[in-house]
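Changelog note: in this version the structure field was regenerated for every chain. One regenerated record is shown below for reference.
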Amino acid sequence: MDAKVKPQVEHMQCFVAGKWLDSDRRLEVRNPYTKELVGTVPMLTAKQVEQAIDALAAYEPKVSAHQRSEILYKAAQGVKARKAEISMGITLESGMSLKNSSVEVDRTVGLLLTASEEAKRIMGEQIPSDTDSAGRDKIILAMRFPVGVVTAIVPFNRPLNQVTVKIAPSFAAGNKTIIKPSQYVPLSSFRLLKILLESGMPPEMISVVTGSSKEIGEVLVGSKKVDMVTFTGSTEVGQRLVQMAGIKKLTIEAGGNDPLIVCDDADIDKAVEVAVAGSYGNAGQACRGIKRIMVLPKVADAFVEKFTQKSMALKCGDPFDPATDVGTVIDEDAAIGIEKAVNAAVADGAKVLCGHKRTGALYPPTVLDHVKPTSDMVVNECFGPTAPIIRCQTLEEAVKICNSTEYGLQSGVMTKNLDNIRYCIKHLKVGAVNINEGPQFDMPNIPFGGVKQSGIGREGIRYAIQEMTYIKTVVM
């Protein structure tokens, strides 16, 4: 971005069930690269958020499935038409490279279009009644209904996409939704909100609130008028939300620490391509990004050499430069944390092959070889553009290391061997096994979620709709 061109500072208001709401206290949003102020949002009180939930709960939606479908379709077209503006907005508040923010807008369009279609496909089933003598002459149906009020709490790493992942299926199912975006990147949520309202979404069915998580979090999660909580963030915060929520539906997408296994028979060039994309996309700040690479002996040296060369060729720097591959992480404190994690791995015996030269919130693609499986940065998810390589002797050892952490979100396996594929499908304790793809593989219509401490429930539009509805049994 031309240093002489200053971004226009946007002062947003919250939106509460049809009304714009402000506050004397405001939260500043700054670009991580320039540290310039790009916007402010209100810091609402717990009382204001409680009133927002009351308003949503009181409203009875009157939009049919085909109307919801049309609204979501129009919203997809609206986002697509404003791609350049929205991409720049994402980069301004998050430091994400324009390359990555452009992809995020495309993914959002896909999510909205998929939700538009799935809004017309919410089906139950007829259950056979003659399987028991009590069911003689009965007709039994299992029908799906919207849960009611959904609280959506979203993280910083996907400012637009994470909001869409939650609001699109919630509205498609007929729910009313209150969204709390990350305090680091709230502006994209308001841009999407305006497009949804322009597309015809009833204003009484949506609220976007901002403020301190400590101040408004308990109301958003614990209110008995909230019927479901959908959350993406850290495992630690997810555990606290589960305790606060009480008895209600939950979808928790928490930590990932996703592995890539490169087997002895892997296509090395393809494996390198997948590893680069998965390790450094969005500066490594991706739930399903590659956090650990397990490499087997026959291909280890060749893979490490080519992977390091490709990593060094990436351009890390000004996120406003269209040629930049890797922008900043979310702030300088996050970059310092990544730096410390790498230093600890080096002290533990790892060798840095490239990168590891922090400048403010910029942290370049960093490859580490001979990382120990017990190093903290591979036991606990390192949320940044780092690629710790663990050399394994066998596939069994690699899978064992993959399963050794508390996480189990996604995985990738590079192999041409059917026996390897079968073994990994059977033994990897994860929510997804991607063959000859990285854990970062994504489509809007497939299930996404983890096991162990990586979460509860599934996202992906059709599967999220199932989570956001309940079954009512009808006996006639």
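Spot check on this record: The longest strand covers residues 140-146. The mean pLDDT is 96.
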